[in-house]
Design goal:
The chain is of the alpha+beta class and 383 residues long. The protein has 2 domains: 71 residues, 2-Layer Sandwich (Translation Initiation Factor IF3), CATH 3.30.110; 263 residues, Ribonucleotide Reductase, subunit A. Helices cover 59% and strands 6% of the residues. Helix 4 runs parallel beside helix 7, helix 6 runs antiparallel to helix 7 and helix 13 crosses helix 14. It is elongated.
Length: 383
């Protein structure tokens, strides 16, 4: 905004016929007291003076022009001056970042108003990657390669992909609870979470298609996922869901791909794992960014992990139907020698999951000792 004079020409436009579409933008470029000189038809004079009184501008003077029209001098009034967009100000509503804000709007009930808790620097880049990497399960998965499997392996596939879909439902619902709380200043974060929801919706659809007849939903799984759904803090949710849970699922999906009985299953696991890697990357970036701004967050995140562990049954074992399904899946059958190999593959998977969790927790900003302790407390349900 400037305090100078601005000259505009409204031709023969009357006040109610488009003149204001020229005058108002010219006034908006000025600070209060700045003057617009507008050339207009002589008949507009009285109307402009009345409009200025209504809009709290000051009508200064009028002079005749050689062409018979008039030049009107109007000083911008003190009201309605647009303010700069302020990140975290709830009165900006859904104004996009960078927009000028007309004063007087209502406050919105956003609760994620601090950049340190809502906007890791990588958000925009991860959203761009997600937008470019969308895939179509109907088009991009070679479903024609799926063939009838031995009964034991067929049941294992159904159980495993039912389990995957159930956990992906939690990964769909949990982030959705925070989108509406984000101040639009952190639009890239909201956009990334929206892409995550699209990923999870696609995974659920494809996983259930691969499952065929769905398997069992265990009480252990439902109890574990409820503790994620009940989280009220965005950073805690990112840590428990994305860093720990979805991070662990990266190893599970790699296992599914490695032992896949057909090309379609392998391709599905590979594409889902690529998506989940973005979600995990965002979670790590989010937690690391928040920890750098608030060192007290270390203890709060550790407490969240411990609360979750304490609220779940203390058996410490992977749910039996899931353990059995993973064993038979890796064995490709149920003859004893193959099952022995499958059980060993399952045991190695659990060890890989533990070690990889430690690495991810360290990358998020924790010490090695903290990472080992928190990895050990993670739910045996994986997510």
């Amino acid at each position: 905004m400037v305090n100078a004079a601005v000259a505009v020409d409204a031709g023969e436009l009357p006040l109610g016929g488009g003149l204001l579409a020229i005058l108002r933008p010219a006034l908006e470029t000025l600070a209060p007291g700045g003057v617009v000189a507008i050339a207009a038809a002589a008949a507009a004079g009285d109307d402009l003076a009345t409009w200025c009184r209504v809009e709290h501008h000051e009508y200064l003077a009028c002079e005749r022009l050689p062409d018979g029209r008039e030049r009107h001098l109007i000083a911008r009034g003190p009201l309605g001056v647009a303010e700069p967009f302020v990140a975290g100000d709830p009165s900006t509503g859904f104004a996009p970042p960078g927009a000028r804000i007309e004063p007087g709007g209502p406050p919105y009930p956003f609760t994620l108003n601090e950049a340190s808790r809502a906007a890791p620097p990588e958000a925009a880049q991860l959203y761009a990657q997600a937008a470019a990497a969308q895939w179509d399960a109907a088009r991009d998965i070679p479903w024609a390669t799926v063939r009838a499997l031995p009964p034991a392996l067929e049941r294992a596939v159904a159980q495993l992909f039912t389990f995957l879909a159930e956990n992906e439902l939690s990964a769909l619902y949990v982030p959705s609870r925070f989108v509406a709380r984000l101040h639009p200043a952190y639009l890239a974060t909201a956009q990334f979470l929206a892409s995550q929801l699209a990923d999870e919706a696609r995974h659920i659809d494809a996983f259930l298609k691969r499952a065929g007849t769905p398997g069992l939903s265990t009480v252990t799984t439902r109890r574990s996922l409820l503790t994620l759904y009940q989280l009220e803090d965005f950073t805690e949710a990112s840590f428990l869901l994305s860093v720990l849970g979805e991070g662990t699922f990266l190893d599970l999906l790699r296992f599914v791909e490695r032992h896949a009985p057909d090309e379609a299953t392998a391709e599905l696991a590979k594409r889902a794992r690529t998506d989940e890697a973005r979600h995990v990357h965002f979670g790590i970036a989010h937690v690391r960014h928040a920890l750098a701004a608030d060192p007290t967050l270390f203890s709060r995140l550790e407490a969240a992990v411990r609360r979750r562990a304490a609220s779940l049954p203390a058996s410490g074992a992977v749910p039996a139907p899931i353990q059995d399904a993973l064993t038979i899946y890796a064995a490709r059958g149920d003859d004893p020698p193959s099952v022995a190999r499958g059980h060993e593959a399952f045991r190695e998977l659990v060890e890989e999951m533990f070690a990889a969790r430690v690495t991810r927790i360290e990358t998020a900003g924790f010490t090695h000792e903290q990472a080992v302790a928190l990895s050990g407390l993670h739910t045996p349900n994986f997510m």
